[in-house]
Write a structure and sequence with these properties.
Distance between the termini: 159 Å
Order of helices and strands: HEEHHHH
Shape: rod-shaped
Helix content: over 70%
Number of helices: 5
Strand content: under 5%
Strand order of the largest sheet: 1-2
């Protein structure tokens, strides 16, 4: 008869499904939900393209990070240099007020020169000036040089951000130390000028 039983229909469908799977395995094609066939050669190509796209995305994301690291390194280097200069300025200012071995040696040398060049028959005023006055003036001169150096270095540190890259503020502690160096330099320079001109602690009168 022309009719099929249920078992025969199931067997026929199962056979067709198996044949379709075997054909797909032999040809290396797969069927997408919309009915399009994708071959096995196209799948690796798409995978390679996705990998390249991910690598490009990673490179683009890493470029800004590298630039940020470079900018941070430059800022750190600049801050270290300015901080060191500020500390040097403050140190020079302290030395200008407390004295240094350079001033001590220079004053002792000037005293020795005064003793050698002054005769015993010279007046008391001349002996005092040659032996003591010149030595004190030399000490004041050396202290004034240290104070001037402290003032110059401190001012350079304070004005450095104006000539650097914009958007890089100076650390507050650097400004504080630089201002301390400038202040000490001004005080030391004023005292040195006052002593060198005998306005402060001048020679005693010998009359």
């Amino acid at each position: 008869m022309g009719t099929k039983t249920v078992d025969e229909a199931v067997d026929a469908n199962g056979t067709e499904a198996k044949s379709d799977k075997e054909t797909a395995q032999v040809t290396g094609t797969e069927e997408t939900p919309d009915g399009a066939a994708v071959t096995g050669a196209e799948a690796p190509a798409e995978t390679e393209q996705e990998a390249e796209a991910e690598e490009q995305d990673g490179t683009e994301d890493g470029a800004p990070a590298d630039e940020d690291l470079l900018v941070a390194a430059e800022k750190e280097a600049t801050g270290v240099g300015q901080g060191a200069a500020a500390v040097v300025s403050a140190g020079l200012g302290i030395v200008s007020l407390t004295g240094s071995w350079v001033a001590t040696v220079a004053a002792a040398r000037e005293t020795l020169v005064g003793q050698l060049q002054t005769s015993s028959s010279a007046s008391v005023a001349t002996q005092v000036k040659e032996v003591y006055g010149d030595a004190w003036a030399t000490t004041a001169l050396v202290g004034g040089l240290f104070a001037l150096a402290a003032l110059i270095v401190g001012v350079v540190v304070l004005v450095r951000p104006a000539f650097g890259a914009p958007g890089r503020p100076q650390a507050p502690w650097i400004k504080s130390v630089a201002w301390a160096g400038v202040s000490l330099g001004v005080v030391g320079l004023v005292l040195a000028v006052a002593k060198y001109s005998d306005f402060l602690l001048g020679l005693p009168s010998t009359k």
